[in-house]
Hints:
Elements: H1 2-17, H2 30-45, H3 53-67, H4 76-103, E1 108-110, E2 116-121, E3 133-142, E4 147-150, H5 151-154, E5 158-161, H6 167-174, E6 181-186, E7 207-217
Antiparallel strand pairs: 1-2, 2-6, 3-4, 3-5, 3-7, 6-7
Amino acid sequence: MRLAATAAAAAATLLLAAPAPSWAQAPQNDDEKAIYALGVLVGRSVGQFNLSKHEQDVLKKGITDQLNGQKPLVDVEAIQPKIRDLEKSRVGQASTAYLDKAAKEKGAEKTTSGLILKHLKEGTGESPKATDTVKVHYRGTLTSGVEFDSSYARNEPAEFPLNRVIPCWTEGVQKMKVGGKARLVCPASIGYGEHGSPPKIPGGATLVFEVELLEIVRH
């Protein structure tokens, strides 16, 4: 099960982060670097759990018991549904706090749909319609800062009809002008909903996009 596996893998990251003489300095060889990088990536993937220090210790105990071949202290299979409940609860809490903060930023505009838009650079061209095809550069992250998609990383702008993307984009990009850049904060209701887009976007996640409107494509 994805969430169970993710939560278990996250513990490995925390173990790597735990104080230990052999890890007082940066990894020394390629194997250590690869394992350390794996830990970082796993840690990013569970950032939405927002674990407290005590919860991190509990998680480390679980992975240590597993690695040492000890019998788990709980019925892991029976508790797996609780992992999903925990993820949903923590994602919801983080999303609410992030949305409240974003809406209070100077220059931010909150629409009736829940979209929060802030212009980072005003464009000078025209604004697209929902039926237009646009060319953009963008970066998408979770509220934890974990990046799940980026045209910058691919070094190639994206091109798509505005009426064939998530509602947040359809609404938000129409408020931009060519040459402009904006941040779109999208609650789950106008993003990927309660089901998310596994494995990168959990259910109920608020999404943050920085979007540059490069062109309205005319065919």
